[in-house]
């Protein structure tokens, strides 16, 4: 039987996303799937929302009922087998889809997000062409590139929905000056950042280079705060990443956010700096 969870782990959020996606692809309603599995009404719905975590056996039965076999079935069952484990380390490209699903679910459930991005722009703030340029440069197939871009755009909905997430973006200035794609791509991206800075729930602050030591020099991270679960820190690298909900680690990164903000330009100064960089880019073009 499913069990209640006192704290929803990132892995459990990824599992709920996988179940929801599989059920939607099968074309069967949650009510009908619960009936086929001999479970009470609404059980599958609770699995999809993360209110309850199914056992690996329940997941295997659901996948069989939905016609899922092979590697995908094995991957999702394995996800269920470790859903309650708090820390989640993924290594190698095969783990990235699960990790991405975990990040998407964290974004949807979070009440606030703080991201330190020293070398590239946060995914939630990227334009379609900026994201497309990065995906192409990484060597993805054309179909995979467009799928990633569509997902990136869909993820931005958390910033504009009725009850939007509060997002603090701390961005290294080098990320704004780097040339990702044609000049038009960067121009559009910089203008988009200026527009986002006008939203009440979005705060953008730039951190200048060569200002001495600050905790952000240790590397990028994302801090998710939830209304119904403990906060989580996410570290993402090229082909691996980790979600860490340990209270001491979370507190350390909450302090890191405060310290980085102290050395960052204010939101007003950030607007001025982005405008200056945009003018320089136009002049160079």
TrEMBL record:
Membrane spanning stretches: none
Source organism superkingdom: Bacteria
Entries under SMART domains matching the protein: HTH_XRE
Entry-linked SUPFAM superfamilies: lambda repressor-like DNA-binding domains (SSF47413)
Residues covered by the HTH cro/C1-type domain: 19-73
Gene3D superfamilies in the record: lambda repressor-like DNA-binding domains
InterPro entries: Cro/C1-type_HTH, DUF5753, Lambda_DNA-bd_dom_sf
Xref: Pfam families: DUF5753, HTH_31
UniProt protein name: Helix-turn-helix transcriptional regulator
Organism, as annotated: Saccharopolyspora erythraea
